């Protein structure tokens, strides 16, 4: 084995070669959505799921992403719940 080609540098070079051949992930941010829509997205149904599939289809037809497996990260944040207002107060009902 040559002095400059130790096993650690060989594996580091192979890892660097693998990193350069992989594609960067594509990030799709869909903003804030209600909790129920996010649950349906996880189950693979609902309006949000349809929106994600439409977005991916548009990206494929525009040649932004390839048709084979490229990492796509979908970011959806949960909307905050609005606090329920209570009616009444400290006065008893008559």
Structure overview:
- The protein contains three helices and two strands, in the order αβααβ.
- With 94 residues, it is α+β, with helices and mostly antiparallel strands.
- It has a domain at 24-78.
- It has a two-stranded parallel sheet with strand order 1-2.
What string, H for helix and E for strand, traces the elements in order?
HEHHE
Helix content: 40-55%
Biggest pleated sheet: 2 strands, parallel
Annotation field: number of helices: 3
Structural class: alpha+beta
Mean pLDDT: 75
Global morphology: rod-shaped
Provide the spatial order of strands within the biggest beta sheet. 1-2
The first-to-last residue Cα distance is 95 Å
User: Quick one: how many beta strands?
Assistant: 2
User: What does the oligomeric state look like here?
Assistant: single chain
**Any idea what the radius of gyration is?**
25 Å
Q: Can you tell me the residue ranges where pLDDT is under 50 for at least 5 consecutive residues?
A: 4-16
- What fraction of the residues are assigned to beta strands by DSSP? 15-25%
Short description:
The chain has 94 residues and is of the alpha+beta class.
Topology record:
Layout: H1 7-21, E1 26-33, H2 35-43, H3 47-61, E2 72-78
Parallel strand pairs: 1-2
Features:
3 helices; 94 residues; single chain; alpha+beta; two-stranded parallel ribbon
């Amino acid at each position: 084995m040559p002095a400059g080609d130790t096993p650690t540098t060989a594996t580091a070079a192979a890892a660097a070669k693998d990193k350069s051949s992989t594609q960067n992930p594509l990030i799709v941010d869909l903003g804030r959505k209600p909790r129920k829509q996010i649950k349906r997205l996880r189950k693979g149904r609902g309006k949000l799921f349809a929106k994600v599939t439409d977005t991916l289809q548009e990206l494929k037809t525009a040649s932004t992403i390839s048709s084979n497996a490229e990492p796509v990260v979908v970011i959806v944040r949960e909307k905050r719940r609005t606090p329920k207002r209570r009616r009444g107060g400290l006065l008893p009902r008559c």
